[in-house]
Design brief:
Structural class: mainly alpha
Number of strands: 0
Helix content: 55-70%
Pfam families: UPF0193
Shape: flat
Radius of gyration: 61 Å
Length: 236
């Protein structure tokens, strides 16, 4: 009877030890059962692998196999660094203080004496004769004109042009008004031709039309004023 009682107890213990395998370890119950009944399963698996590998290794040794010797790598040779040490000259013994041997600026009096002596030498030295004729007034005037117009002297200078305008007969006011009338008419015709050319090329835009028509209107107003003045001269 006692043996029968112990048998179910042993079977129950084995089932509990394998219960975590049924639950898995992806849930809290399986993790708790694994911690309680696994009895270092990972350690046991590692020991079994170690035992098997040791048996294989012992068989190889018994057959006369020897492992290759392990050689340590050679240590790198450390070279001693070469440092260049500057060489200094031997110490010089000075009779006086070293500061007296340092070149310094000359005093003002010494520099002034040298300048005066050089000036006297240059003034007393004979002057070389000129190697070209001396410039006369005509040549000076020509060079002045070249400098004035930057090397290109025009055929008609501004002074000559002013003299020609003064000498030319002055036009009467009627003639000036007639010339102004013709100039305004020409400007109006040019703007009309410009609009026609744009229209023929297919590039005419409404803003351009408004702008050109505004200019034409301004010219027409000026033309009317000039025409009124011409009529006054005609009546007179």
């Amino acid at each position: 009877m006692e043996g029968d009682r112990d048998a179910p107890a042993a079977g129950t213990s084995d089932n509990l030890e394998a219960a975590w395998k049924q639950f898995g370890r992806d849930n809290p119950a399986g993790k708790a059962l694994f911690k309680l009944y696994n009895k270092d399963a990972a350690k046991q698996i590692g020991n079994s692998y170690h035992t098997r590998n040791k048996q294989v290794h012992d068989k190889k040794l018994a057959s006369g196999w020897t492992p290759a010797p392990v050689t340590e790598p050679a240590k790198p040779k450390v070279e001693k660094p070469q440092v260049e040490v500057p060489k200094f000259p031997k110490r010089i013994d000075y009779d006086t203080a070293r500061i007296n041997y340092i070149p310094r600026r000359r005093p003002f009096e010494a520099i002034r004496r040298e300048i005066d002596a050089e000036y006297e030498r240059m003034r007393s030295a004979p002057q070389a004769p000129p190697n070209r004729p001396v410039l006369d007034e005509k040549e000076k005037a020509r060079l002045a004109e070249l400098m004035r117009f930057r090397g290109k002297v025009p055929t008609v200078t501004p002074e000559q042009l002013a003299d020609q305008l003064k000498a030319a007969p002055r036009k009467s006011e009627r003639e000036q008004l007639e010339e102004m009338f013709e100039a305004i008419v020409k400007e109006i015709e040019e703007r009309r031709e410009f609009l026609q050319a744009l229209e023929a090329a297919g590039r005419l835009r409404i803003d351009t039309v408004h702008m050109i028509r505004g200019e034409i209107s301004a010219r027409v107003a000026e033309l009317q004023k000039v025409d009124a003045l011409l009529k006054q001269y005609g009546e007179a």
